[in-house]
Amino acid sequence: MAESFLTGLIGSGIGASKSPSLHEREGERNGLRVVYRLIDIDDLGLDATRTPELLNEALRMGYAGLNITHPCKQVVFQGLEEVSPEAATIGAVNTVVFDGTRAIGHNTDWIGVGRALDHDLPDVAVGEVVLVGAGGAGSAVAYALLRRGVRRLTIVDADRTRAAVLAARMNRRFAGPRAVASDDLESALRHADGVINATPVGMPLHPGLPFPPELLAPHQWVLDLIYVPAETELLRTARAIGCRTMSGGAMLVFQAAEAFRLFTGTRPDAGRMLRHYQSLSTCQPDPVAA
User: Fold this and answer.
1) Residues contacting 122, CB < 8 A, separation 6+
2) Which of 48, 57, 110, 148 has a CB 3.0–4.6 Å from the CB of 140, allowing a cystine?
3) For this structure, is 73 an active site residue?
4) pLDDT band at 287 (very low <50, low <70, confident <90, very high)
5) Active-site choice (70, 73, 115, 169)
6) pTM of the model
């Protein structure tokens, strides 16, 4: 009889997520029975502050682990007994593993970013990079890029204090200072090799562009962490200018692959998961959230 793992995702507006298919299909391919449930706080009439209670309930029900998404990646810390060093530095948890009676927080987003860049943009320059958005996803990107050797990371956020806090946290971890907060996006982009959008601007509920496209130059690369839609207005505009571009789809898959390993103890075939994701993206309409 196949070994079974009960897993899932806590977040807001996640009803059309592709994560259940990614995890359950890869479980089948490895001879495992993986059940992946969606725990949508909107459907339950809860707000993000109830995330620790949901963790306790999942532990009681025998879950092996849970993924955590917006807007629960920070508040989830209150329900954890232990946090990985990476998640502590990033300041966000997107994967919780239950070990007996303990809930242990991890962050696989930063792994997803690095592997996605290796897959889609392996040869781009990373001397100076601009990060737009300093939330949970942006924090994981900052960590991944500084580990990757970015010489200067300029962080821009509508909340300048949040950008400054993230820069300070990264500089405590990495020799520098290599991370700086700025509210002068135009100046930062003038010298950048690439730019990453880690804001929700470009999603169906937040249409538009996160910054004026005339600030881009053809030699730059652009990564938009949004994967619904697969091609945002930012990516279409940047490609028309001549920039190399990348959506957040590969990041989603590679972070899911690492979460699968943490949940099951089995190393998945990430390439196979990526091909499955691409088939879902081709044959299904875009969900409003994932």
Assistant:
1) none
2) 110
3) yes
4) very low
5) 73
6) 0.92
